[in-house]
Amino acid sequence: MKETIPDQIKGLYENGRQWIRLQIEYAKLTATEKLTVLLSTLIIGAVCMLLGMVILILLSFSLVDLFKTFMAPALACLSVSGILILLILLILLLRRPLLENPIARLLSKLILDIKSNEND
């Protein structure tokens, strides 16, 4: 028995609705996956930064103690402070290659690289 044109249109409409629902579900799953990767990267980065700060403080105290052996304690503290200021200035000058570019690459790879996931 042949289907009539209204039945075919109704079938196309239902297939279109199903396809749209599946695409929305796929977008939700993809967004969830990408958000999970982004948040885990941010958490790992925050933990590494926190541990790095603790290490930097301990190394600063160790450097002050080392400098105290051959200079006055106040001068040792000032020397370590000067080294830390130079380190901060170096990070500020190199913020684009050290911070902005890797973050931009991560976000663009995570958000815009859809085609490589479809081919896998």
Please describe the structure with a list of short key phrases separated by commas or semicolons.
single chain, 120 residues, 4 helices, 90% helix, rod-shaped, mainly alpha
Could you explain how this protein is built, in words?
The chain is an all-alpha fold and 120 residues long. The chain is 90% helix and 0% strand. It contains four helices and no strands. The protein has helices spanning 5-68, 73-93, 95-112, 115-119. The longest helix has 64 residues, at 5-68. The chain is rod-shaped. 0% of the residues are buried. The mean pLDDT is 88.
Describe the secondary-structure layout:
Blueprint (H helix, E strand, L loop, with lengths): L4 H64 L4 H21 L1 H18 L2 H5 L1
Report strand %: under 5%
**What is the arithmetic mean of pLDDT?**
88
Helix content: over 70%
Distance between the termini: 42 Å
Number of helices: 4
Return the structural class.
mainly alpha
Q: Using only CA atoms, what is the Rg?
A: 28 Å
Q: N-to-C SSE series?
A: HHHH
Number of strands: 0
Oligomer: single chain
| Main sheet specs | none
Label the overall shape. rod-shaped
- In the predicted model, the low-confidence regions spanning at least 5 consecutive residues are none
